[in-house]
Amino acid sequence: MSIEDIKKTAEQKMARSLEVFRNELQKIRTGRPHPGILDQVQVEYYGSMVPVGQVANVTLLDARTLSVQPWEKGMGPKIEKAIRESDLGLNPSAQGDLLRVPMPPLTEERRRDLTKVARNASEDARIAVRGVRRDANEHAKRLLKDKQISEDEERRSLDELQRLTDRTIAEIDRLTAAKEAEIMAV
Known about the structure:
- The structure is a single chain.
- This protein has two domains: 3-27 and 107-184, Ribosome-recycling factor (Topoisomerase I, Chain A, domain 4); 35-102, Gyrase A, domain 2 (2-Layer Sandwich), CATH 3.30.1360.
- The protein has four helices and six strands, in the order αββββαββαα.
- The chain has helices at 3-27, 75-85, 108-145, 151-184, and strands at 42-45, 48-51, 56-62, 65-70, 93-95, 98-102.
- Helix 1 packs antiparallel against helix 3 (108-145), helix 1 (3-27) packs parallel to helix 4 (151-184) and helix 3 (108-145) packs antiparallel against helix 4 (151-184).
- The longest helix is centred in the last third of the chain and has 38 residues, at 108-145.
- The termini are far apart.
């Protein structure tokens, strides 16, 4: 494995960590609803647990209400129960086949709790990025030890990996700050 391979692998892994972090942030509820909020809710479908989006059409009815339209007749009560039992604090109501999921306004205390959740996800992402950097640094040091690269090349690669890490962590911080501002906006 060459220095270029190490850097390319580290860059790909950091990009994946960043993408996972973005997905985690999308799951955190803000004041306005979006259909993706129900992606984490699992419902039993023929013996296996699947996300709500795979058994129903989730759309936005208005500024405060989601609509869940099951694709099969018998799935309505199961989806309603799954949404009710999820940790999202939502209370769906059935209207025939259609489920209406009103989004209650967030209290100040709940907003603070959600910012803590965002910060924890941010810290997990930073830890993942630093782990990638550590592994890449170890690979570079191993190449130096095996005399496949010079000390200058090793130093340069460590500096480039640090710059890549700094850029990725700055992006994580930017996304976290944006999410916190979105959560705290009334």
